[in-house]
Structures are given as C-alpha cells and as structure tokens.
C-alpha cells in the first residue's frame, strides 16, 4: 500500500468493470487460467485502444486490474475491476491530457470493442487447442459447436460499467487495500453454521436501499463447492498493471506524469513514516519480502508503544460485503 500511495496522482480516478457473459463464464470454470488471462488481455487492450483514439482521449493511460470470479452468493461470475486515472500522457509524452469532468470513456464503445476482442481471442484459443471441455460441455470440442455457442454473443450487449470517480487519491488507496485482498466470502458475512448447513448474508445488486440485503442457507457440501470454485490456478496473478502502470516502465512514466502536472516526487521515507537515519537495521531479513527490518522502538512486555507513524497507514482488511 505504501508503494501504491507513492504512485497516486492528485487527479480523479475512475472505477471500470468488465464482465463476461454467463455463457462464457460456464466454460471459464473449466478453463480458468486461459479464459481469465484472456479477460485481462481483452479488457486492458480495450481501454488502452479507446483511450489512445484521438476521437476520445488521445492519451496513454494507466490501469490497475483486479480479477473477481464471484457474486455475492459465491456463484461463478468472472469480471475485472479496474482503477484508471482520469487522464494520461499524450502520445509523444510531451503533455498531460485530462479527461472531461466525471467522464472517462464511452461505455458503449468500450463494450463493443471488448466483445469483439474477447470473442476473437476465444476462437483463436479454441483453434490452438488451448481449451478443454468436460461433462455437458464435451461437445464444444468441435469447432462448429463452439462457434455456434458464441454466435448469439456477437449481437448481445456486453456489460461494461464506469462508476463515478473516487473521492480523491486516499479513497483509491482505501479501495485498493480493501477490494484487492478479498476472497469469495469473509467471516463477518457468516450468520450461522452447523453440521448440515451454512447461513450467510448476501446482497441483491438489482435492488437499492436496505432491502437489498438478505440471507441464504446452503448445505455444507454446496457451500464448500461454491467457495472452491474461486480458488485460482497456482501462480495465477489476479492483480495486473497496464499502460503507464506496467512494471517495465512504471517508475519512469509516473515520474514524467508528476513533472507534467507540476508535482514533486514523494520521498520514500515520507511514504512509510519511518526515519531511516535513526532506525537500527536488524541482521535478520523480513520473512515475507526478504528486505531489511528496522527497530523503531523497544518497550517492556505489557506496555503500550509510544511510536506513531508520521503518516497514517491504511489498514488492510479482508472484506467481501
């Protein structure tokens, strides 16, 4: 979170969602690594292409994408959440181009391009033999049967949703710390459990107001089955960065953007709130990242620490509500 905070710009950030139709979600369950990867590629390519079009924004944008595969009831519902700054670098990198107030890119245009890219990539993956089909989907091994499955989707409107901008960079950071670390369900949504069933809170997104929250009871085996649907393939990255935020050029492009916006580059020590001049390095490295650990305070057992970070840190919690 400290690294992401240093990269935030004082501009509006938009929340964009790309969702796969249920027909593709059904086959994605048997081809998670392939289709989830195609979802990332098609959605990011859509955003980068439309943003670069002079008829729209005419700029190179940055994207942070997060994969979610569940709905509130833990059914299979693959979709990608994106965090996108409201502007980007001009194609020659000489200036910063801001989007219109409360408007990033036209969702209908995004929807059409996303539909075409995703369907073309699916057909290419099928032709390359990258997809497998089991059970009731076994007949889709045939190219004509697979094309017939996709045929109605060429005419259907695909769901792309752009929400209003976040309420400032700190709201973006709070979203990242909460939303990117979710699992299919958290303990606080569980209401009751016994040897036969599990009752938990669910949200109906089609209803506004307090009435959108209700409860659902599932048998233990069905509850476990739904939870395990959302276990990702080993080594699969569910958070990815594109455009200005791509790992290969992130530091350079963000520094360029800050310069064009007339902003100073934040110091690393200001981000984490620890003074490296007074901190004492530990010989033992951090067991999580392998980096050096620093002693910032020593206190007796039962006593409260006196040290407080100079910059408030964002608490990371797992939440699926």
Q: If you had to describe this structure to a student in words, what would you say it looks like?
A:
- The chain is an alpha+beta fold.
- Helices cover 31% and strands 20% of the residues.
- The protein contains 9 helices and 13 strands.
- It has a 5-stranded antiparallel beta sheet with strand order 7-1-4-3-11, covered by helices on one side.
- Helix 4 (107-127) packs antiparallel against helix 5.
- It is globular, with a radius of gyration of 23 Å.
- The chain starts with a helix and ends in a 26-residue tail after the last strand.
- The model is unreliable at 267-274 and 310-321 (pLDDT under 50).
Map the helices and strands.
Layout: H1 2-7, E1 13-19, H2 22-28, H3 32-52, E2 59-60, E3 62-70, E4 76-85, E5 87-90, E6 96-98, H4 107-127, H5 143-150, E7 160-162, H6 169-179, E8 190-193, E9 197-203, E10 213-219, H7 220-229, E11 239-243, H8 250-260, H9 268-272, E12 280-281, E13 294-295
Antiparallel strand pairs: 1-4, 1-7, 2-5, 3-4, 3-11, 5-6, 8-9, 9-10, 12-13
Helix pairs in contact: 3-4, 4-5
